[in-house]
Every structure is written in C-alpha cells, then in structure tokens.
Write a structure and sequence with these properties.
This protein has 1023 residues and is an alpha/beta fold. Helix content is 46%, strand content 13%. The strands form six sheets. An eight-stranded antiparallel sheet has the order 16-11-15-12-18-19-17-20, sandwiched between helices. Strands 5, 6, 7, 8, 9 and 10 form a six-stranded antiparallel sheet that branches. Helix 32 (785-792) links the parallel strand 25 and strand 26 (797-799). The longest helix has 40 residues, at 980-1019. It is globular and about 85 Å long. Bound molecules: flavin-adenine dinucleotide and iron/sulfur cluster (SF4) (2 copies). Flavin-adenine dinucleotide (FAD) is lined by residues 30-31, 74-81, 85-86, 97, 117, 139-141, 145-146, 148-150, 152-153, 155-157, 197-198, 202-203, 325-326, 452, 455, 510, 512, 571.
Amino acid sequence: MNKTQQDYLEQEFGSRVTFRKTERKLYGHDIAAMPGIIKPFIGSMVPDAVVQPETEEELVELVRWAGKNNVPLTPRGKASSGYGGVLPVKNGVVVDFYRMKQVKHIDAEKLTATVQAGVVWERLERELKNKGLTLRLYPSSFPAATAGGWLAQGGAGIGSYEAGWFRDNVVSARVVLPDGETREFSGDELDVISDAEGITGLISEVTLRVQPLEELDVVAIGCPDAIDLQHMVQAMIDNKLPIWSLLFINPRMAELKNKAPLLEHLGHPVEERVLLPASYIVTLAFRKKDHDALMKALPGVMKPCQAELLSDRIAEHEWKNRFKIMIVKRLGPSLVPAEIVIPLSSLGKVMAEIEAKVAQPVVKEGVVVREGASGQPEVVILGFIPSDQRKFNYSFVFGLTLTIMNIAEKYGGRPYSTGLYFARMAGKVLGEDKAAKLKAFKKKVDPRNIFNPGKVIGGGVIGLMMIAVRAFEPFIRPLGNRVMTHLGERPSEPVRDIPADVAWYAYGCSQCGYCIDECDQFYGRGWESQSPRGKWYWLREYMEGREEWDQAMVDTILVCTTCEMCNIRCSASLPIEPSWMKLRGILIDDEKKMTIPPFEMMAASVRKEGDIWAAYRKDRDAWFPEELKEKHGPKNKAKIAYFAGCTASHVETDIAEATVRLLDAAGVDFIHLGKKDNCCGTPMLVCGKWDVFEEILRSNVQNMKDAGVDTVVTSCPACDMMWRQTYPVWAKKLGIDYDITAKHYSEVVTEKIKSGEFKFPEKVPDTTITLHDSCHIGRVSSVYDAPRDLIKAIPGVKLVEMEHNRENAHCCGSVLTLIKDPPVAADIGKSRMDEAVATGADKLLALCPCCQFQFRVTADKKKIPIETVDLARFSASALGYKFPDPNPEVQRQWAVFEAMIALMTPEGFAKLMGTMWPELVDAMPFGMGPMMRFMGKVPGALTLMKPMFPVLFPRLLPMMMPKVMPVMLQRVADSVPMPDYMLEQMPDLMPKVMENLMPHMIGDVVPLVTQPMIDYLRKGDSK
Ligand SMILES: Cc1cc2nc3c(=O)[nH]c(=O)nc-3n(C[C@H](O)[C@H](O)[C@H](O)COP(=O)(O)OP(=O)(O)OC[C@H]3O[C@@H](n4cnc5c(N)ncnc54)[C@H](O)[C@@H]3O)c2cc1C
Ligand code: SF4
Ligand code: SF4
C-alpha cells in the first residue's frame, strides 16, 4: 500500500485504522492452526491495513476507494470461523466490523430484529430479553460471533432443531456491493449473500426473525452407540416431540471433558467436576410449557434404543457449558478440526466408519437440524482431533480431516463450509445450483475480484492442493493414524523466557474470541493486541521467534487492569490474568525491563514514606477522628485492625473516616495502626516491582503480628486482595507464617446487622443508587452480597443494578490504564459510568478508593452527570456524620499525576532537557562541555559528530545527572503542580527515579534532543 493510500485511510478513519505491523498480524488469522506444510503456499497473510468502519456510509466510501485503487478487501466479524474465510490472502485491507455493533430496531409485533452486521449474539440476546424476546437460534460461538459473520459463513447451531439453518431465519440483509451501491436482499436473493463470505458484498445490516421469550428446560440422555442415537433422534422427529434444540457429544468428547481442567481461581478449582458417562450424550432444550408432554413421550423413543435419562446435574452442566466446547483444547494443546454435514439417516454408518478408519481420538459435537436443506433431517458434526501444532507430524494428523470428509461424502454428506480450503468444492458444499448462481453474480458485481479473493469459489492454489491431497488420502491416513497422541496438559520447559505453563496456555487458547469484547483493554482501545486472544497469539509468535519484546508489548502486558473478566469468559478456562501477572514479574523483576514510568516515582515514595502519593508518613493518620483515638488508636489492643491503605489515608480521606465511624457505630472492636498503616503493595505487584512488593509485605505482616491482630479489615478492595489472596500465597513462598484473615468493612458491618447488634437508626431522604462492583473484591474475592446487604439496611435507599453487575461487572479502568493511558482510562470509565447513568440512579456508589478516584477524574473529563459517592461515606452519613468533599483533593492530585505522566515520557524528558541546555553542557564530564561549545562554532563539526550522540549520551548522562539534578528539580517543580510535601521530597525521590528510568528511555530521548542540542551549541549562549 502506497503512502497516498495510507494517507487517505488515515484521513477517513483516524484512530480506526492501523498500519502497525504487530497489530496487522493479529488480523491475519482465524481459529484454525494451519499446518506448516500449507503455509508456504499461501504466503503472507498480513494485511496492509485494518480499518474499523462505524457506519454503512463509511463502508460505501471504503468500497469505492478500494475499487478505484484495486485494493482487496477482506471482511472480518470476530474471526471465530476456521475455514480461512477471514484470511487476507491477497493482503489489502481487513474490514473489521467490531464498531458496527448497533442493535438498530427490535419489532416486538413482527418478531424481528434489525442489527448492524458486527453485533455479537450475546449482546443481541441481552437486548431482546429486555423486550421479552429471544433468538430463534444461535451458534455455539454465541459469546463472540457476529450476526453478519454467521450469515456470511452460513451455519446451524443451538435452536436449529426447530429453526433450521440460520439463513432461513433471515428476513433481509443490507449489503454494500463492490461498486459501492447498497442493496437490500431478501428471500431467494439471499442465495448470493449467505455462505458467500463477503465475496459478493459487505453485509452492513441484518434483519432476522426472533421469538417470544419463554422459559426453557433441559434434559440429558445417554445413548450407547451412534446407530441407536440415529434411531432415537429419528423417532423424536417422527413423533413430533416439542424440542427446540438437540445437541450431542460422542463418548470420546465425554471422556475428554471428564479430563479437562476445571475453571480455577488463584490456583484452586472453583467448579465441581460433573463426570459424564462414556456414551453419546444428548442435550435436549425445550420450552418449559412442553415439559410434561415431552417427558411423557421420551421413554417411548428412548427404550428401543437402550437410551436412558441422565441426571439433572449432567443436563444442567452440559447446557451451562454449551459454549465451552473448546475446553478440551487444553489437552492438545491444539485441535485438528473436521466439520461435516450428513443426513441423519447415515449418522450411525458415518460414525462407525470414522471410528474404523481414524485411529486418533476424534471428539465430536453434533447439532441436529430437524428439517435440513433437502427437507430431510441433517446433522452437523464438529469433529476435533487433539494434536500439537508445534510438532511436524501435526500436518499428518491434519490429513485425517480429509478422511472424515471422504466418509461424509460417501454417505451423502459434505464439508460444512468452503472458506479458503474447500473453495474448489463450492458445488458440493453449497449445492451446484447455488454455487452457479454465486459464481455468476460474483462475475457480474466484482469482475476484478477484490472482495475477499480466493474464498468460496476462488480457484486458488490451496483449493487445488486440497483436491490433490484428497486423492492421496489413503496414503496420508496411515501416517496420521500412526502419530502418537498424548492427551492432557503437560507443560515441560519454558520457551524463551515464557514459563512452561504460560507457553502451554498460549497454544491452548482456541482463539475463539469470547474474551475480546468484555476485556476493558480491548474496548478501551478497540484493537486485538490488547485483548487476551491477541496477547496469546503474539506470545506464540514470540515463542516461535517471529516477534521480540519491545516497550509497546511490555506495556500491553503491564497495562491490563487485572480485572479478571477474561478468566470467567474464556472458553478454555485458561488462567489468563494470572498468566499476565507471571509475565509482569518476569519482564520487570527478572529481566529489568521498564515498568510504567510513574510507578518508579511511587516505588521511591513507598520505600521512603510507605505510600504511593509522596505524602509524609507523619500525616498518614491525620484523618483519624480525634475522639476515637483512645478507643481505636494504635495504643489499644484488638484482634481486628482497620487497614486504610494509601488513597483513603491521603486523598479520599472521607472513606477512611467514614469506615472507622461505621465500624465504631456497629460496635466492632478494632484498632488502627496509626502511622504504621502502610501501602498494601498492589501497585508494586502489578507494575512488576516485586522486590519492593516483598519488602512491603514483610513489614505489613510483621506490623500486624506485633499488634496481635488476626483479622484485617479494609475499605480498599486492592488492599483486601493483598491481605486475603496474595499475601498468603507469597508468605508461603517466602516462608513467613501467615495466619491473618481479611474482610471488607461491608462484610463486618453486615455481620453485625444480621446478628441484630447494629441497625441504622435514621431514615435518609429517599435515594436511588446504583453500585459499582470493584473487580478486586468482586471477581477476585466474590464479595457481592455484603455491600448490597449494607445498602438495603439503610432505610429509604433503593438499589438499582447496572447492566453489567456482580461477576459480570465492567472494570472502572483505573490505576494501570489511568497511569499509562489517561485518555483510554477515561473512555473505559465513561462506558462504566454511562451504565450507571442509564439506571436513572441519583448516585453511583463505589466501594473502592481507586475506582472512585477514576470515576471522579472521568466525570470531570467527560462531563458525566452522576455523583460518585463512597459506600462507607454514604452509610455513615445515614448515621448523621458529615465528611469533607474529597473531589478537590482528587482533582489536585490528578493534576500532579497528569503532569508527571506527561513528563515521564521520552517527549517529556526531551522537553525538560530543552529547558536546561546550559547546565547539561556544563555538566559534561572530561572537559567535554567546553569542547562541545567550541565544536558548535566550527562549521559542520557537530553534523559530523551527530551519529556519535546515540552512543555518547547514554554513557555521559549518568555522570551528568548529579550535577544537573538541582536545576532539573527546579524545572520539574515549574511544570508539575506539586503540593509542598511532595516538592520537599523530590530531591530524595527524583534521583532514584531517573536512575531507574533513564537507561530504558535514553534511546528514545536522544533522537528527540540531538538537533535541539546542536542548535543550542551553534547559537551559543552567554558562556
Ligand atoms: C467455540 C466455537 C463454536 C462454534 N459453533 C458454531 C455453531 O454452532 N455453528 C456454526 O455455524 N458455526 C460455529 N462456529 C464457527 C463460527 O463461530 C461461525 O461461523 C460464526 O458465525 C462466525 O462468525 P464471526 O463473526 O466470527 O465471523 P468471521 O469468522 O469473522 O467471518 C466468517 C466469514 O464471513 C465473512 N464475513 C464476516 N463478516 C462479514 C460481513 N459483515 N459481510 C460480509 N462477509 C463477512 C468473513 O470474511 C469470513 O469469510 C463456532 C466456532 C467456535 C470457535
Ligand atoms: S484482566 Fe481484564 S483487562 Fe486484563 S486482559 Fe483480562 S479482561 Fe483484559
Ligand atoms: S483466551 Fe480463552 S476466550 Fe480468549 S480467545 Fe483464547 S480460548 Fe477464547
């Protein structure tokens, strides 16, 4: 792509286009791991650019431009397909539909929904439910896949038993054709759009049929073999049993599911294992109102097939986990896919022949379509063979896919889809008529073949290869069958510097995309590199030597908010956030790469005064109510201590004060350690400065032990996370005795309320509030009820929930993101606060000082009309206490941080140096200062020296620093509006910060300062 073309895209799409190589790479693959043998025939699949249109008008503009410039366009929904349809084999531009995700209209009377193509099924279903409606069918990739993607790819899914293929549930689709015209397709016209994978046009909008929401019920049935299964399902159809969805798995799948890892939290399983019998397990979903009729009829169809009803527990487990088929990938760590459609009448024979011919364990999931394309029942079988893509023999196992395809065809079946790999078999896959229609339409509308070239009917080399290889299937099969398959997780050695378990997970990730839309780092920026899926893919590239760590990638790991949303979203139950945590330690603590710069200032401050705000330890407890000191001050003894943490002690002090008021009023016997209260260490842990974290942990635990405390009560979820979850693990690792329990004040106070020892005496004016669940006490410690119980105990208060609440609550976007990328943090914060505003609540209650800080900063930047109030403050106010408004202090502190953040960048440091050239030159060692000044006067001398600057500067700067420090401190003071106490401490803090940062940053600073320094030397000054 030439510069003019890039400029055009940049001008049209601004931050919604990327040319960054690392990013583009992440838009050049789908879920399938392509065998090494095929890759060279495809060549580079890295697009030249990725764009994210927001509207149909933008799509039209893009299409017209692409036509004029002959630039190939490859549409991409969530890339959850695996046939190569999204691969930009001719490079060009990937059109990512992520931002076209509006639900435009729901018609409850006509039972239709009109959506932009990029809407994800899960989101649409949520909106439908709010209107008493539901989807007629959806793919098992429901948490990730898009409406446009499914229409373009074609398919059946959950609900297809009753509703058929997706295309038959589409009323119409608006499509941008290759000449830029937009047309609406409906009825038979959809033949040239559905299953066409974008080769004929970009789908911008889909109108689909929906149905009234009715309560569902599920049962599970065990069936001994495939032929019995076939007969039983046929009998269900013949007897018109009122079933909505019929899914089944084969015994191998049941066996693997039994072996699959459970969802873990902090290294412990958080779900129970439900053992499945080694049989075909059918999961039926039906409307509750049909329960009696179905249950009455089932024995009649099951008995002749020796089938039996399985427990409710199994039924619920299978239904609950219906989107998590990829969990078995953890055992591979790769899966070779084989997806076929066969007539129900040949199910038994197909299964038997696969068993006979394929010696590898083939795990299968099936979807029954009661009335298939031919009017007869069909079965979609998604088969997987566990394998290891890192091994050469993976290609042979891949060959077995063709064996399965051949078997399907022998019995009247076909491959599920065309995509890239089966593009020469369109007639078989789509039916000869439809394929012919599609070819003719493609020829007419896109004669230059710029819309998703090489796919569906493309005549590319891959399709040819597949046909050729199929001819050799009988010879390849024995090779594939002979490969030894090991099942189970077996991480062995670290790969490069990636720990063995994390390396395994990287390959275990199915690339399904479930984690993407709900990751705040993704929706804050909109690019895959920030999502867990993108990071896993990058790690694979890194481990295979095609990528290297740079600061941008280190930051990508560091900046993750640790919200833990991805852990519960992951279809493979991967411990994602803990893996990033491990990498933080490796990158920063072990390898001494640069952390997010302002954390160096926090580290220096923590080491000196025990807090991250560069405040004095002597002021740590200035907020503590004088009259409570005698009862709860550090001179007392109690088993419970309130640990306030840094932000509540120094910035939002209303939180700390309100908490002790509340605890006191509730009759809790507690102490506060006074000036010994300390930073909990979370900032040091997450920024990778684990040496500082360890120091903090040791001193905190010792302080509590010395005070005879066994329970630490917190008001900050990050502190709570340390005392409750992190310290115990680290203490064990460090050989420290740890016998401390942690509780949030909301838990302690609600205990008192429940036991009848405390109640709120006064009625506050009627208030409607909404509650933000902090990630660090919600998903990390599952404390959801206590804050709600506390709120409910206050008379006159009504709690309304936000769209995402409890374990699904979205993150506020704080700390790491706020410090690294304030504008992104504001976008994330806004998306959360918008949800709060949408509830109509008067106030947004938060129970975390850091979330509140972020909300206050966000509200100020984005002008969001809802007041943020701390839960403790709100509750203690109901007791009649008054507290100072924390907002002015928050804004003051944020101004300091914002200026520090800007300063601690290469540009910031370059600017700072630009204010002190005379001092810098004077500070040069070995008499170089006068020499440089002299060179400035000799024409051309500095130009000659210029190439040496990148070598000289890093060596000289450490020697110059002590000399220029006083003036540097002065200049920093000029640009950062620091409070006096911070200013006073700068001479102690700054040298340490510079010592740690400069070695990393100097390489980026030198190019920025070289010319300004030369200019200064040429111009000279009074010296
Ligand atoms: C765990 C899992 C379960 C799955 N279950 C099912 C299932 O039950 N049934 C099923 O059919 N499939 C299933 N799939 C496959 C896949 O999820 C579906 O095909 C899905 O519909 C693809 O949607 P997508 O948004 O990811 O599209 P993508 O994969 O991004 O795209 C699919 C094709 O459509 C094209 N395309 C995308 N958007 C547009 C557009 N707006 N205009 C024109 N062309 C476009 C792409 O170029 C590509 O060729 C599953 C996949 C996974 C990982
Ligand atoms: S922990 Fe949160 S921010 Fe980090 S990767 Fe997971 S979902 Fe994204
Ligand atoms: S991390 Fe999990 S949810 Fe995300 S793409 Fe990988 S397997 Fe899917």
